[in-house]
UniProtKB/TrEMBL annotation:
GO terms for cellular component: cytosol. It comes from Methanobrevibacter cuticularis. Catalyzes the attachment of valine to tRNA(Val). As ValRS can inadvertently accommodate and process structurally similar amino acids such as threonine, to avoid such errors, it has a 'posttransfer' editing activity that hydrolyzes mischarged Thr-tRNA(Val) in a tRNA-dependent manner. Its main location: cytoplasm. It catalyses: tRNA(Val) + L-valine + ATP = L-valyl-tRNA(Val) + AMP + diphosphate. This is Valine--tRNA ligase. HAMAP family: Val_tRNA_synth_type2. The lineage of its organism: Archaea, Methanobacteriati, Methanobacteriota, Methanomada group, Methanobacteria. Residues 211-244 are annotated as: Disordered. InterPro entries: aa-tRNA-synth_I_CS (IPR001412), aa-tRNA-synth_Ia (IPR002300), Anticodon_Ia_Val (IPR033705), M/V/L/I-tRNA-synth_anticd-bd (IPR013155), Rossmann-like_a/b/a_fold (IPR014729), tRNAsynth_Ia_anticodon-bd (IPR009080), Val/Leu/Ile-tRNA-synth_edit (IPR009008), Valine-tRNA_ligase_type_2 (IPR022874).
């Protein structure tokens, strides 16, 4: 092969060729036979939305770079791909596509619609993932909606139920009216918005005043204040006026829940309400009587210091209801519509009720005032509808029983970056409610439970029944002969109602490390715990928390050794990428223009835990770098493929080549081996940014700009003497070593490019292992300690810096870089520097095409000669006017050197009556060396030397 067979430019469209080859050859398949150390990656299963976004790209680029690196390091890597199919997003999309609600068709039909959509979306996302070169083992693909995976989820339910960690109960839960289902606290997102704080008067009840505040004659009341309430009005806020005569003024952002009000709470230390404690007030509009009670959680400084407790406005209401055993009034139904308990507002939506209530409060004189305030509103993280708190019969995991274990396991796991661990621990500390795991949807793993129609007893499925949809099948038992028969309840009934609620989708994905390991098969322990969990910081409180909880409960140990957290992707406008902001860049758009590897270099140029901005200039730089590398490879290949080195047409023999390495060879090889160690360490600790930046800097500058340019003269040398031949062989060996090694270092980041270049090297049998077709299956290059030499790196840098100075001089002087320089003398009083440069004298001469190069310790002998003087007419004209021609004539007709000497001696020159000085002329000077020839002097700031360039 010759360079004619290698395209002049790198064509990223060839990436598809390599993706097909990798897939066809299944080179990323996990073997699992124990011949290699295992490396298990617990990969995040995304929702199959049909398209991947830049957040996915960043996350999976991290995973893929790590997987490829571990394979090169000799590990048997399990890199599965999962799909978290169940949940609200798919159901919402199906309802939108078919213009239906979930209950408009049968459960079976609706589920099938969800399955069909999910299959389509998985196919599209799988294609996109492969187009970016992600190296999953697709043989181990798992899909949570399949019977096999649902069986594992349901089995985990049975196991935890047997351990009394799962129970059914009637409790307040977060409820999404749009999705008509309960959701966990971890699925509630909080957004700040502006709303009205409404000051509403709750009227005091006279019966309370008579029975509890005085003896019936009004004596105590008359002692405390006069008819106008002066004493009270002095010690209370004017907006509250007199509580005993006017009641209590509360401030609320949720007036629509007046009908669900069950108490008014004040701070026990708030003197304004000390006389109201234990009394009753009347709720406006709905008219029920509620007690005024005290609790230290009330903030006296907010609003009026009096808070209405409604069932339920927020978590605090739930706390107070439970603490004081208050009544529960259900004023909102599952669809967010006001119930009969709302009285005149029955049938209204929440928003309609709020507006109507405010209008009525104003009309009836109960609304004192309104203020604009900021509030955090909890919303469903899927459809963004504000959530409500409803009392429902649901299934729960007893999180509080496991909190200690969760914290213990969290500390056993290595977190990268470390500070991300606090997010999970803080979330654990904030847990007040158990995890509600039941959902009132259809497309999800069924809860394996039946209820006896006769006595109501709960029957939990047995392992042999899994996977099961209890709405479709009755419970069964295995008799003594091994036959399956219908289950009979203890009450004698065989009539059962299957649980229609389904499991939270996190119940599926939170067993991912167990599922990929093969649990509950006893052999699963060979692949569990996983080595690593890579995920985004946005799902620490869900996927990370639930996985730790579930695996600890089911196995007693941690789910993974390490967890690596990636950040979010921000658009060029500085905001998180989102469709609503219109700042989304599709991965396909980048790949079409610049290729997947350019996109991957962008993803690599970041560190775990940090949010990443997307910038087209980063993509373009990655693309430009690959082209730079390609051009260098193409140039090098011309010399590598020329295996003959002398007149006898003998092939290159790299045996004992190290004995013939020249100083610059040793310099670049030392830097190469140091680079290998740095990149190896960076990949090992997931600092991909250091890896890609170090590789790019080395390849672009040290290798391409410096070393290749410095050895071209050796490669093109036609001399056939032993020294010249050995020098050429050493240069070729060094080029080959650097190109192969850096290519392997780049493989985890730019796998397509690496295999494309490697394929040409393999075809010419230059690579070290001729039996392997893909660089992906080679080994990580060894770092050769004996080639690492700090001193040679220091010396090589001096030589490279000197070459750079002279190249910049040629460029500034408009001298072509390939044009020869007659003679250069190097002067310095630094003996060590001079002795160092003597080692590189051939490289300096050859690289810069210097005919003669001398290194001298002698003192520089240089003279400055004035070779031309021209009149400064802007000075002469205005000053001398009519005498100016005499001065011009003098300056242009006399010897420049004589004029300069006169000026140097006297500082002025008299021409008739006119006196001129240096400001009246322009002098052109030249430097003359000891040879009598014109020279240029260079005195580099960073080098203790002077360069005399003879022209």
């Amino acid at each position: 092969m010759t360079t004619d067979n290698i395209p002049k430019d790198y064509d990223h469209s060839n990436e598809k060729k390599w993706q097909k080859k990798w897939n066809d050859d299944q080179i990323f398949k996990f073997i699992g036979d124990g011949t290699k150390p295992r490396y298990i990656i617990d990969t995040p299963p995304p929702y199959p939305t049909g398209s991947i976004h830049m957040g996915h790209v960043l996350n999976w680029t991290y995973i893929d770079m790590n997987a490829r690196y571990r394979r090169l390091k000799g590990f048997d890597v399990m890199f599965p791909q999962g799909w978290d199919c169940h949940g609200l997003p798919t159901e919402v999309k199906v309802e939108e596509i078919h213009n239906i609600k979930k209950n408009d068709v049968s459960r079976a039909d609706f589920r099938q619609m969800c399955v069909d959509l999910t299959k389509e979306n998985i196919a599209m996302m799988k294609h996109q993932m492969q187009s970016i070169g992600f190296s999953q083992d697709w043989v181990r693909e798992y899909i949570t909606m399949t019977p096999k995976y649902m069986e594992r989820t349901q089995y985990s339910f049975l196991e935890m139920f047997d351990e009394d960690l799962i129970y059914q109960g009637i409790h307040p839960v977060n409820w999404c009216p749009r999705c008509e289902t309960a959701i966990a606290f971890a699925e509630v997102e909080y957004e700040s918005n502006e709303t009205s704080l409404n000051y509403v008067r709750f009227k005091a009840l006279a019966t309370n005043e008579l029975s509890e505040k005085n003896d019936g004659s009004g004596n105590e009341l008359s002692e405390k204040n006069d008819e106008s309430g002066n004493e009270l009005s002095e010690k209370n806020d004017e907006s509250i006026t007199n509580p005993e005569t006017d009641g209590v003024l509360i401030a609320t952002t949720r007036p629509e829940l007046m009908s669900a009000c069950v108490a008014v709470v004040v701070n026990p230390d708030d003197e304004r309400y000390s006389d109201m404690l234990g009394t009753e007030v009347e709720v406006p509009l709905s008219g029920q009587s509620v007690k005024v009670i005290a609790d230290s959680e009330v903030d006296p400084e907010f609003g009026t210091g009096a808070v209405m407790v409604c069932t339920f406005g927020d978590k605090t209401d739930v706390t107070w209801v439970n603490k004081y055993d208050l009544d529960i009034i259900e004023a909102i139904d599952e669809k967010g519509i006001m119930t009969e308990a709302a009285g005149r507002y029955k049938g209204m939506s929440l928003q309609e009720c709020k507006l109507a209530t405010i209008n009525d409060l104003k009309a009836e004189g109960c609304m004192v005032k309104q203020e604009v305030v900021q509030q955090n509103v909890g919303k469903c993280w899927r459809c963004k509808t504000p959530i409500e708190i409803l009392v429902k019969k649901q299934w729960f995991i007893a999180v509080n029983k496991l909190l200690g274990d969760i914290k213990e396991v969290t500390d056993e796991i290595k977190w990268i970056p470390e500070h991300m661990k606090s997010r999970l621990l803080n979330w654990a500390d904030s847990m007040e409610w158990d995890w509600c795991i039941s959902r009132q949807r259809i497309f999800a793993t069924p809860i394996p439970v039946w209820f006896c129609e006769e006595c109501g007893k709960v029957h939990i499925a047995k392992k042999h029944e899994l996977p099961v949809d209890p709405t479709q099948i009755k419970p069964s038992v295995i008799d003594k002969d091994g036959n399956k028969t219908d289950y009979i309840c203890e009450c004698g009934s065989n009539s059962f109602r299957g649980e229609e609620d389904v499991l939270d989708t996190w119940m599926d994905s939170s067993i991912s490390p167990l599922s990929i390991a093969g649990w509950p098969n006893p052999e699963y322990s060979k692949n569990f715990p996983a080595n690593i969990r890579p995920q985004g910081h946005d799902i620490i409180r869900t996927w990370a928390f639930y996985t730790i909880l579930r695996t600890k409960a089911l196995t007693g140990i941690k789910p993974f050794e390490e967890i690596v957290i990636n950040g979010m992707v921000f658009g060029e406008d500085g905001y998180k990428m989102s469709k609503s902001r219109g700042n989304v860049i599709a991965p396909d758009e980048v790949i079409t223009e610049y290729g997947a590897d350019a996109l991957r270099t962008w993803g690599a140029n970041s560190v775990p835990g940090s949010d990443v901005p997307f910038d087209w200039k980063d993509i373009k730089y990655g693309h430009k770098f690959l082209r730079k590398f390609w051009n260098a490879f193409r140039f090098i290949s011309m010399h590598l493929f020329d295996r003959k080195t002398n007149s006898n047409n003998e092939f290159i023999n790299f045996d004992n080549i190290k004995e013939n390495l020249e100083p610059l060879d040793k310099w670049i090889l030392s830097k190469l081996n140091n680079l290998n160690k740095e990149v190896d360490k960076s990949f090992d600790v997931y600092n991909f940014q250091i890896a890609i930046n170090s590789i790019q800097k080395f390849v672009w500058h040290d290798f391409c700009d410096d070393y290749i340019e410095a050895v071209k003269y050796r490669l093109y040398n036609k001399e056939m003497d032993e020294k010249s031949v050995n020098s050429k062989i050493a240069a070729k060996y060094t080029l080959k070593t650097v190109i192969e090694t850096t290519l392997k270092l780049l493989t985890p980041i730019t796998p397509h490019f690496a295999d494309e270049v490697y394929s040409y090297l393999k075809e010419n049998k230059i690579a070290s292992d001729n039996s392997i077709d893909s660089i992906q299956l080679t080994k990580w290059p060894e770092s050769i300690e004996e080639l690492i030499n700090k001193e040679i790196e220091y010396e090589g840098k001096l030589a490279i810096d000197l070459i750079g100075e002279i190249r910049r001089f040629k460029s500034a002087s408009k001298i072509p870089l390939n044009a020869p320089i007659t003679n250069i003398n190097i002067y310095s009083s630094n003996n060590k520097l001079l002795n160092t440069l003597k080692k590189f004298i051939d490289d300096i001469k050859g690289t810069l095409k210097i005919n003669e190069l001398a290194i001298k310790k002698d003192k520089l002998d240089v003279q400055e000669k004035v070779v031309e003087i021209t009149p400064a007419m802007d000075k002469i004209g205005p000053e001398f006017k009519g005498e100016a021609p005499k001065i011009v004539s003098y300056l242009t007709s006399n010897n420049p050197e004589e004029i300069a000497k006169l000026l140097e001696t006297d500082g002025k020159i008299a021409i008739d009556e006119n006196i001129i000085t240096g400001e009246h002329m322009n002098m052109k000077k030249e430097l003359i060396g000891e040879s009598g020839k014109k020279i240029d002097l260079l005195n580099p700031d960073d080098l203790d030397l002077v360069l005399e360039i003879v022209k």
